[in-house]
Amino acid sequence: MKLLRRVFPHPHLTILLTIVWVLLANAPSLNSVVFGLILGIVIPFITQPYWPDRPILRNWPMVVEYILVVLWDIVVANFTVARIILFKRDADRQPNWVCIPLELRSPEAITVLAGTITMTPGTVSCDLSAQGHNLLVHCLDAPDPDAVRDEIKHRYERRLKEIFE
Amino acid sequence: MTEFWEIVIAFFLIISGIFGFVGSFGMIKLKDPMSRLHAPTKATTLGVGGVLIASILHSLALEHRLSLHELLITLFLFLTAPVTALFIAKWHIHRHETPESLPDAGEDGKWATHAVPPEEDAPDQTAT
Would the CB atoms of B69 and A98 count as touching at under 8 Å? Predict the structure, then answer.
């Protein structure tokens, strides 16, 4: 078991690298799978000193649910933001800073949350507080900053907490 | 059947064109730099997403082979776009915002961009 951990320090990374290599080759042949597997074993082994801990994903169904929720939100938010840009006068828009107190503590989870917020049109994550306990988010049009904060906490942070912690 | 797929593919191409246009238009219309930052996130999500879905459908329905490396483009965009957006936002906070103009950072007191030790800040001021 210990030997297995030495050889595969990050089994998820091994699988991910293999899939990425097969997708890059764009032709699922035995050739590309084998070479992808070699890369997937060698790269995590070499980069091991830079990743002392591996993030543990606890809830796989939740990962799928999270991805679907985010994709759906991106589509909906795209239409909302398109309406704001095309039809709302610039003077009526209320850009706002929102401070989101974080319950998440693992760096990977906070990174995913910040990335999600940026990729959802209408909100951009801008900064963390000095000790990483709050996230600063800029909203394109937020008459009610508290509602934005509650939605992000409820929709994304709650799910990430179940995935990572 | 081919015609049906061509219409579906064209639909996704038009969707992506519209959102790419709205994203670029937003860069002109929105006045402050922070709001302008929102416009490119639209172009990279539905704008690029529409082209990629159209590309997958095209190879699947018309060329009869499975091509999925479009998914990789999505993956790399989702990895890189937030980082560039964060860098631009940090630059903006650094140059144009003060701790007073931002909302309160809770128990930590300051946002990370402003919480720089003074000795690291000093050579920057002499340089400019």
Answer: no
